Amino acid sequence: MVELRNIAAGYPGRPVLEDVSLSFVPGQVTVLLGPNGCGKSTLLHTANGLLPVTKGEVWLDGRPLNAYTPKEIARKVAVLPQSRPVPEITARRMVLHGRFPWLSYPRRYREEDHAAVRQALAWVGAEDLAERPLSSLSGGQRQKIYIAMALAQGTETVLLDEPTTFLDAKHQLEVMALARALAREGKAVGLVLHDLCLALPGADRVALLYGGRLEALGEPEEIWRSGCLERVLGVRLGRVETEAGWRYYLV
Q1: 3-class SS of residue 199
Q2: Is the pLDDT of residue 119 over 90?
């Protein structure tokens, strides 16, 4: 489990987060919401040590994060950032990059690594893309490959920064279903999302960031009833109860 304890973090000369406490809990999907520039991506990068804290602590599985080596962290926490390169390699080779933390040098892939890649491609429904050049894929297809790369890493915590970008409505729903499936397997899942109607039905907990601070944290029902979404994001949400649970819509 990743725990952020009263952290402050940011970039040289540009603080972003201030006094934020948040945990990514095994078996739960935690969705980060908030306006652009509020610190959502910074929080994910701080959670796995890509950005250092200037105050507070990050703990991983009961130990301070700085007690681990980068490879040890990468075996426990996978982070999919917003921006990613598009190298001239096949989709399968890209997904194999997720296995780097488990390899020694020189890198020699084992059958277990190839099996992890096959499973990850199957999870995102991209087996048919495996041998295609990454550069030939559409934005949505590429996004599925990047998600598969994070899953192939085989970590207990999976943090995805705007994983539904470039995806059509059908595939956005599939990503949320995948997040729920990973949580059912006992993984801690964190997602940065902007689509409230997609986020609230799929989350166990919602963390609302504003101005670098944690404005609200709670179950979707609690967050919706509090009115904080309208206050922070300037939008109103209605909802209707269906057989599949509450469905939200912009008013």
Answers
A1: helix
A2: yes
Q: Which pair of structure tokens corresponds to residue 66?
A: 């700085």
Please give the backbone phi and psi of residue 190, each rounded to the nearest 5 degrees, phi first.
-125, 135
Domain presence at residue 13: yes
Q: Name residue 7's beta-bridge partners.
A: 20
Whole-angstrom distance, CA of residue 245 vs CA of residue 155: 30
Domain, as residue range, for 47: 1-76+157-171+181-222
3-state SS class at 81: coil
Cross-strand partners of 188: 157
Residues 3 and 71 in one domain: yes
User: Predicted confidence band at 83 (pLDDT cuts at 50, 70, 90)?
Assistant: confident
Place of tokens 């902007």: 194
Do 59 and 164 have their domain in common?
A: yes
Measured between alpha carbons, how far is 13 from 27 in angstroms, rounded to an integer? 37
* CATH number of 38's domain: 3.40.50.300
Q: Are 1 and 23 in contact (CB under 8 A)?
A: yes
Amino acid identity at 92: R
DSSP 66: G
Specify if 191 maps to a domain: yes
Residues 163 and 68 in one domain: yes
- Structural contact between residues 102 and 73, judged by C-beta atoms closer than 8 angstroms: no
Q: What is the C-alpha to C-alpha distance for residues 216 and 190, in angstroms, rounded to an integer?
A: 16
- Cα–Cα distance measured from residue 39 to residue 37, given in angstroms and rounded to the nearest whole number: 6
Share of the chain above pLDDT 90, in %: 86
Please indicate, yes or no, if residue 22 is contained in any of the structural domains: yes
What does the radius of gyration of the chain's CA atoms come to, in whole angstroms?
Answer: 18
Q: How many CA atoms lie within 13 A of 151 on its CB side?
A: 28
- At residue 86 the predicted structure's pLDDT band, cuts being 50, 70 and 90, is confident
